[in-house]
Every structure is written in structure tokens, then in C-alpha cells.
Amino acid sequence: MQRIIQITIGGRVIPIEERAYDELNKYITSLEIQFAGEAGRDEIIQDIETRIAELFATRLQSGAQAIDSTDVQKVVETLGHPSQLKDEQANTGRTSYQQYIPVEPTTRRLYRNPHDKWLGGVCSGIANYFDIDTVLVRLIFLVLFLTLGVGLLAYIIAWIIIPVARTPQEMYYMTGVPPMDFQTMKKNMENELQDLKKRGEQMSRELKEFFSNKKSS
């Protein structure tokens, strides 16, 4: 029987089996080594830990009492292992951080959304499917309930029939937004650093103009 410990990762408190924690710790350590030479290394690792915490939280919401070794392995399969990055870098001379992202769906699939719900996530799932505001769907169900009295029954039936999106792939099919991976994290970080650089250059120019105008006056 595995001892369960509590860890904080990505701002979330996660119950995890001790052996699974050892495997997770080794994985994160290997990532830190792999990203050692990258700009914004700490921010990239922080984004990865946040993504891991989201995956673990989804697993716990599905009824798991604690994260086990199998869950850690699924996270590694979802995000990718550092050895994949090393192999690609050795073959191409560069690191692309490409992950195994599911093929973009031609149409969205209907799931209940576990991350945006009042009860079962039905309204949010329907809103994602039709690409409309969740509030509008909730108002429709409310009006049906108050006027015809069928809103609650329709919601319960939808809750039973529509499956909940549990995996990153299912969330992708529901929202059309691809799961966060190394490539996306690195791109976001590069964009943030580039934006910060541009703002710094703009501020420098404005200060130069200010002092130049003040001196000439």
C-alpha cells in the first residue's frame, strides 16, 4: 500500500502516492536540465508545472483519491519526455519542442465542461459546441424551466447523455483549443519576452525625447 502525500504544484494542492511523486520529481528535474540553456527557463518550467497540475486536477475530479504512477506516466505521454527533445535535437541540430497533438477536428464534439460548471457542465459544453456565450445557454435553460417547466428535465437528460470531457484530447475536441505543450509554452514565453523588449525600447525612446526636449527648452 502506497503512502499518500500532499504536494503543491502549479498553485494546486495535489494528493499523490509517494512512488508517483518520485517519478514526477525525476521528470521535472529532467525538464529543468533540458531547458537549462533556454531564455525564460524558470517561466517555462512554471508553465509546465501549471499544465501538469491541471491534468492531475482533471484526474482527481473524475473520482481518483490520489495521483498514482499510471497518472504520472499519462502526463509524460501527454506533454512528452525530455529524451524526445534530445533525440530531435541530435537529428536536426535544433529543438522544436513539438509534441503529439491530436489532429485538428473538422467539427467540434459535444462534451460537458468540468472546468466551467454550476452543476454538471452541460451549458458550458453546449456553448462550446455551438461557439456561443455560456451565459446565453444558461438563460435559455432558465427560461424553459420558468415558462414551460421542462428546463430542469432537459438539463438532467443532457447531464446523463452527454459525456464529460476528462482528457486533454477531449477538451481539445470540445473547445477547439489545442492542449498546452512545450512548443506552445516556449512560443508564449518568447512572445512575452519580445513584448517586454519592445516596451523597454519604447520607454527608452520616450525618455530620450523627453530629456532632449527639456534640454532644448
Please give a quick description of this structure.
The protein is mainly alpha-helical and 217 residues long.
Description:
About 6% of the residues have low confidence. 23% of the residues are buried. The longest helix is centred in the last third of the chain and has 35 residues. The protein has a two-stranded antiparallel sheet with strand order 1-2. The radius of gyration is 23 Å and the shape is flat. It folds into 2 domains: 97 residues, no CATH class; 79 residues, no CATH class. By secondary structure, it is mainly alpha-helical.
| Beta strand % | 5-15%
Tally of contiguous helical segments: 9
Tell me about the biggest sheet? 2 strands, antiparallel
Helical content band: 55-70%
Overall pLDDT score: 77
Number of strands: 2
**Count of the domains:** 2
Query: What structural class do helix, strand and pairing data support?
Result: mainly alpha
Give the neighbour order of strands across the main sheet. Answer: 1-2
Low-confidence spans: pLDDT under 50, at least 5 residues? Answer: 92-105
Following the backbone from N to C, one meets helices and strands in this order, namely: EEHHHHHHHHH
Radius of gyration: 23 Å
Q: What gap, in angstroms, lies between the N and C termini?
A: 79 Å
Topology:
Layout: E1 4-9, E2 12-17, H1 18-34, H2 41-61, H3 69-79, H4 82-92, H5 122-130, H6 134-147, H7 151-161, H8 168-175, H9 182-216
Antiparallel strand pairs: 1-2
